[in-house]
Please model this.
Amino acid sequence: MNVNIIGCDLHTRYQVVAWVDAETGEIKKRRLEHDHGEVRRFYADWPRGAVVGIETTFPALWFERLLTEYGHQLWVGHAEQIRASVVREQKTDDRDAEHLLDLLLAGRFPRIWFPRWPSAICDSCWCIATSWCGRAPR
Model:
């Protein structure tokens, strides 16, 4: 079985992704803006079953839902362990995405468990919490 693997340095407004080109074996990188459907088009083009690795970050339920919609898996990695395994000192988005890809390919990605709620339940809880508090929960 040949699984597509994507390292993703996720930010609030954009993400940088790294993957191995199946034809050339070359590592490709791309910056995707979260506006205008660019992220949706990118993941829709991948065959179902791709593994996308990110490090722990802000709650990105929208991203998990999008990947699930296209049949992909989201793996979340322990940020401190990922950072500790970097040999370079200068941090860039491209290098971070490539480093996540390297860890995934080498089988050394420090995957952690995190709750995956059905979207209907999660959306209901969110609506109830915001109406009770008058603002988003922390």
